[in-house]
Amino acid sequence: MFDRYRRWLSLGLGLVDILLINLAFAVAYWVRYELQWIRPLDERYYVPFREYLPVALALTVILLVVYKLEGVYNQRRGASWLDEVRAIFSGTLIGIAIMIVLFFYYRPQFYSRLMFGYAGILIVVTLSIGRLVERKVMDQLRKRGIGVDRVLIIGAGEVGRAIMRNIIAKPELGYQVVGFIDDDPERGRNDIGRFKALGGTDRLPSILQERAVDEVIITLPWTSRPKILDIMAQCERRRVRAKFVPDLFQMSLSRVDVDDINGIPVIGVKEVSIRGWNLALKRAIDVGVSAALLAFLAPLMLFIAVLIKVDSPGPVIFKQVRVGRGGRRFTLYKFRSMREGAEEEMKKLAALNEAQGPIFKIRDDPRLTRVGRALRRRSLDELPQLYNVLRGDMSLVGPRPPIPSEVEQYQEWHRRRLEISPGMTGLWQVSGRSDLTFDEMVMLDIFYMENWSLWLDFKIMLKTIPTIILGKGAY
Q1: Three-state SS across 122-144?
Q2: Residue 158's CATH number
């Protein structure tokens, strides 16, 4: 019930946000062009509001998409108002940055930069106030039983009773307990305050149907693992959400979705974040940015090609088979940074390998050319990989693409990094690059995969810039 209601609430919030975003934008225009705070405006640069209407429309669409990706419309149950404000601020910052790049690339002298600054501030303020009002309205609706989840608690021990206490104390969490079941005959027959005893776990199927249960919270001890798994399977067959409160954290939290009831953890299965619309948006950004960078950096790449050709004999572009998403092989392109035939020399240099695990790295690789050493230091040899990104072989951000011989040496858990597209830069590249061990690289890649967001990609790309400039850990 709560999830269905939350979907309608998200839709309603989206519609309200559309109105508030445009209201804030109109006020920003009034402040910039009519009041002219901070800096007076020359009449030659006056722009009528109708010229900003396409900008307002584009900003609205971009912000709604970014808000969705940043979780503004899917806040964790019991999240505070400040959590929502932080998400709104983060999303607005990204959206305004995208708008500035888009519009000032095409018409740099037409639109006011200060206007976008005003708009960003006013959007955060108006939407934050809107969320505060929404919370007050939701409190009143929940008191009337609207927008709540009908919950069945399994287990009436200390943990089960703690859940009950917190649901009573925190009605804003949106839970309505239909009762509890327990295989202990004494507990299964005796009500606990307002909470009805509904018998043992053998009655679960009929209770789920008769009581219109939305969610089951399991508070059984970990020693009851077979029963917990059976209950969760029954709930799954009947499309009822099931979560359990663990008495011991005997599972990796990287694979679960942790929610809470006033600080008491309830755990469900974590969904993969880079799929569906998230994957489509990530791909759209990859195509747009790689195409723009290829066009913008074409003169630099031509200059590098000439330097390579003059410096040493051999092709300008180095091609190598790499392993991408799902184990699919593709041809990776780089500027050649080593002398011709360098791959055949690798076996002779095996004793000099400074990397741990199935990768090959030498800090002062004797195969590097003079130009190649400079290119490696600033990662300029990787610029042709923008073509791989444009083709769909790679992404701008993701794990390092391995060669087949490396994959053959992977342990089973290493292979998880192949579940997403490899990238030109990634979390490990901005966290130490070649100074990290292979296992550390893989752990960072898996962390990135499990915690992906548009904001995380943006942060990694921003951190890549000083990492490249300083050349830290690159060899």
Answers
A1: HHHHHHHHHHHHHHHHHHHHHHC
A2: 3.40.50.720
